[in-house]
Specification:
five-stranded parallel sheet; binds phosphoric acid mono(formamide)ester; alpha/beta; single chain
């Protein structure tokens, strides 16, 4: 059984196969109405549970649509409305759901919850975001970068702002796909040391540069995310805004990158906070392609998990 729990827990060969599969499936849909099933429906007769303990627009809709395009069926469940939110253990939930469905996608808070679900489920479990990582997003982002600029290996990405869960998955990807990453942000919001160590152990050059324009110098892509994540306390908002304001991605920062540098953001964004609207809507931005590619990347991930 194959769970998709994190980019650093999946082999390079498997990750590359999923990216290539995603691109093939995207190409094969060219010109096909959005809701229509694919030519191939490898999920016919399969049922997938999509569990959300946090809000979602992209993850929820892209998994739901993608599974239907492949001929499968879905049920979208809110953690709060399940017995899971009222004292039933994760292990028992995993055992019960495994009697009904073929795959479980879980968006949750603590990574330990995801790991416990995977340990006790007898069907594949996919990480739809935890406080520690967001691997489906970064798989979609790899598809996006490569469809615009070719192979990601050997490039240098800049992450600007909070070294959060999405940043960790970028670091895991840097190690697995062979690119470098410069973090620019305040010291108190540095990325997870474990994710940095993983990337470095795989040969990625990970650097930290406190000056955002110097960090962006010669970059192939500049990436950011919201300053306050879903798991951050609301009381931290003002302090974070003050700390992160110098790391807003603006025209000056983009101009420091290569002329063909891409601007990337997983969305949702707070416009004119972590990035200006000028950059988000500018010619270097691929943010809506990233959203679309959630669909294609996750279809490949689900197929890999189910071996279909
Ligand atoms: N990027 C992302 O995961 O978006 P949602 O929170 O809307 O699912």
């Amino acid at each position: 059984m194959k769970h998709f729990l994190d980019i650093h827990k999946t082999t390079r060969g498997e990750l590359r196969a999923m990216i290539d599969q995603a691109r093939r499936m995207k190409d094969a849909r060219d010109g096909r109405p959005k809701g229509m099933a694919d030519d191939e429906t490898p999920l016919a007769g399969r049922m997938v549970a999509l569990i959300f303990e946090k809000p979602s627009t992209r993850t929820r809709v892209s998994f739901d649509v993608g599974i239907r395009q492949m001929g499968g069926q879905t049920m979208v469940l809110s953690g709060k409305e399940m017995q899971l939110g009222h004292g039933e253990s994760i292990a028992d939930t995993a055992r019960v759901l495994s009697r009904y469905v073929d795959l479980i996608m879980l968006r949750t808070f603590e990574e330990a919850t995801l790991l416990e679900m995977a340990e006790h489920a007898t069907v594949p479990v996919v990480n739809g975001l935890t406080d520690a990582s967001h691997p489906c997003q970064i798989m979609a982002d790899i598809v996006t970068y490569e469809e615009h600029r070719g192979a990601i290996a050997g490039r240098r990405f800049v992450w600007s702002g909070d070294g959060n869960n999405v940043c960790s998955s970028w670091l895991h990807a840097a190690g697995q796909f062979g690119f470098d990453l410069t973090f620019t942000g305040p010291e108190t919001l540095d990325p997870d040391p474990g994710a940095v160590a993983f990337a470095r152990s795989r040969g990625s050059n990970v650097t930290i540069e406190r000056d955002p324009v110097r960090a962006a110098d010669g970059a192939d892509a500049i990436v950011t995310d919201t300053w306050v994540s879903m798991h951050d306390p609301e009381s931290a908002r003002e302090r974070r805004h003050n700390q992160l304001r110098p790391y807003q991605v603006d025209a000056r920062m983009m101009a420091a990158g290569k002329p063909d540098a891409l601007f990337m953001h997983c969305l949702p964004a707070h416009r004119n906070e972590e990035a200006t609207s000028e950059v988000m809507d500018g010619p270097q931005s691929v943010i809506f392609d990233e959203s679309e590619n959630r669909l294609h990347a996750q279809k490949a991930i689900v197929r890999w998990c189910l071996g279909v």
